[in-house]
Amino acid sequence: MIDVDLIVIGGVGFTNSEKLSFGSNGYEMKKIETPYGTTLVHIFETIGLRIAIIPRHFGTNHVPPHNINYRANIWATKSFACNRVLALNSVGTMNEIKNLPGTFFIPNDFIDYTKSRIYTFFDEKTVHLDMTDPYCAQMRSKLNSFLGNLGTKFSEGTYVCTEGPRFETKAEIKMLQQFGDVVGMTGIPEVILAREIGLCYCSICTVTNYACGISTNKLTIDEVIENIEQSKDTLAEIILHMAKQSDTIKICACQNSIDGATL
């Protein structure tokens, strides 16, 4: 087992190793073999902390959301003596009053509109996983308190995940607005797989843009990247804070997720 204080799954902008330094003195790169494929992990040491970062989109090119090997990435976390995972996601806002671009969003629930992904580790037996509270309540609480103390603008609510890689249509966003607050492409099945193996998992989302049809401007990837770049210093603070808090996370229901769930 590899000893770390926190596992981070990095999204857009956290693919290349040179972009992953959070004030550390370099990093160690490991390839972890899993039954589902190989996962690349960067391990940083800084201010007495060890942080593992899994670049979600890592590959020869930027791996699109529908082709990410979610099972390999989540299974790779079993190699660490740590069960706390902080996921970094970028999202579009469907609520131009509550969630402005450049702010942060903490999901407390999700709606799944993906189509063709592999959603479970349990292919040989039936496990009806309880997803009443899909994100770790203790980690969300610590995120909430820290962002509040920073004075950083953030909100909480429901994350809607679509298949991608295209952006949504105006009609789709109009429908999804009835159910959720933000829309992204990488949250599912990651959160489901994390719960299946008993991880304490939560997400911090950077609101990078208005969802299609919310603004009259054409949505471009340049807008997304610009807001991600502007959020990196705050994300670094969040990561370091959550790593420092790792020992204060008590045993919670996340770790007993499949108790009573198997037929």
Offer a few descriptive terms.
263 residues, alpha/beta, Rossmann fold, five-stranded mixed β-barrel, 5 helices, 9 strands, globular
Overall description:
With 263 residues, the protein is α/β, with parallel strands linked by helices. The chain has one domain (6-256): Nucleoside phosphorylase domain (Rossmann fold). Helix content is 22%, strand content 28%. It is globular and about 50 Å long. It starts with 5 loop residues before the first strand and ends in a 19-residue tail after the last helix.
What's the short story on this structure?
This protein is an alpha/beta fold. Helices cover 22% and strands 28% of the residues. The protein has a 5-stranded mixed barrel.
What is this structure's SSE topology?
Elements (H helix, E strand, L loop, with lengths): L5 E5 L16 E8 L2 E10 L2 E7 L14 H7 L7 E10 L10 E10 L23 H14 L3 E9 L7 H7 L5 E3 L5 H7 L3 E11 L10 H24 L19
Parallel strand pairs: 1-4, 1-5, 5-9, 6-7, 7-8
Antiparallel strand pairs: 2-3, 3-4, 5-8, 6-9
Pathway: Purine metabolism; purine nucleoside salvage
Catalytic activity: S-methyl-5'-thioinosine + phosphate = 5-(methylsulfanyl)-alpha-D-ribose 1-phosphate + hypoxanthine
Keywords: Glycosyltransferase, Purine salvage, Transferase
